[in-house]
Amino acid sequence: MTIAPGDTVYGRLDVSPIQLLDQNVYLYIEKVFVCAGQEGYIPLYNPDIGGCVGNPEQLDTVIRILDITDPSSVNTTFQGFPLSAMMSQDDTEFTEVFNIPGADGFSFDSSPLFKEG
After folding, report:
1. Are 57 and 38 in contact (CB under 8 A)?
2. 20 to 30 Å CA-CA from 117: which of 19, 40, 63, 109?
3. pLDDT along the chain (117 residues), means of 10
């Protein structure tokens, strides 16, 4: 996926329709991280450590943009510019995702990722 300056990035997670036969399956995103690696390294997320995986010299950027359980830990800006990150239930332009059984999502503004602070 290529992101350009000014794009709104939308993320969505779904439960397989086969698993929704019961309709009592709910999916909620708790945390969202934006991670960037150096020299071609692609970071992975590790839920056990609650962040991006990589040696410090491999990671260029790690930003926690959303955290339902600890909103005070979130970076609302990057290099002084607002990320405007929202969970789908808080984004009036994205609420259709929240109304899909077994799905949740988020959005954020990509512009700060391309600015020089």
Report:
1. yes
2. 40
3. 86 73 73 88 80 81 91 93 91 73 87 81
Closest CA to 13 of 3, 25, 28, 23: 28
94/13 Cα distance (integer angstroms): 13
pTM of structure: 0.80
Residues 54, 81: Cα–Cα separation, whole Å: 26
Lookup result for tokens 């996926």 = 1
Closest CA relative to residue 107, chosen from 10, 5, 7: 10
Residue 59's contacts (CB-CB under 8 Å, 6 or more residues apart) are 35, 36, 37, 38, 41, 43, 52
* Amino acid at position 113, single letter: L
